[in-house]
Write a structure and sequence with these properties.
The protein is mainly alpha-helical. It has one domain. About 60% of the residues lie in helices and about 5% in strands. The chain is built from four helices and two strands. It has a two-stranded antiparallel ribbon with strand order 1-2. Helix 2 packs antiparallel against helix 3 and helix 3 packs antiparallel against helix 4. The longest helix is centred in the last third of the chain and has 23 residues. The chain is flat, with a radius of gyration of 16 Å. The termini are far apart. The relative contact order is 0.13.
């Protein structure tokens, strides 16, 4: 299903979902959605995700590194305070974006 199909199905604009009253709102903020947001930022700056407006992929290694460093800081500061699924999500995302960063930086 495309983003446009999802918007038509829910009647909400991009990035929004209907709440229990049918009002279009942003998704609930959870630790996982916060980490996924930082992951999306890192992937965008690594040129892995195209700009939604222009369709162009832009590489900015400094901003990608900043997003990765933020994820690493969160991992360090939350050690022992996360649920198993949250800790695993953060560990896997951090591993993935670090690997992508190294590969992109080699080019």
């Amino acid at each position: 299903m495309t983003a446009q199909d999802q918007q038509e199905k829910t009647g909400c604009g991009e990035g929004k979902v209907p709440d229990m009253h049918g009002k279009c709102v942003m998704p609930e903020v959870t630790f996982s959605t916060f980490i996924m947001s930082l992951n999306t930022s890192a992937l965008y700056h690594l040129g892995e995700i195209a700009d939604p407006a222009s369709g162009k992929k832009i590489v900015d290694l400094a901003l990608a590194k900043h997003a990765i460093d933020t994820l690493a800081m969160i991992e360090q500061k939350t050690k022992g305070n996360l649920g198993k699924d949250e800790a695993e999500l953060l560990k896997n995302i951090l591993y993935d974006v670090k690997l992508r960063f190294v590969n992109k930086a080699k080019r």
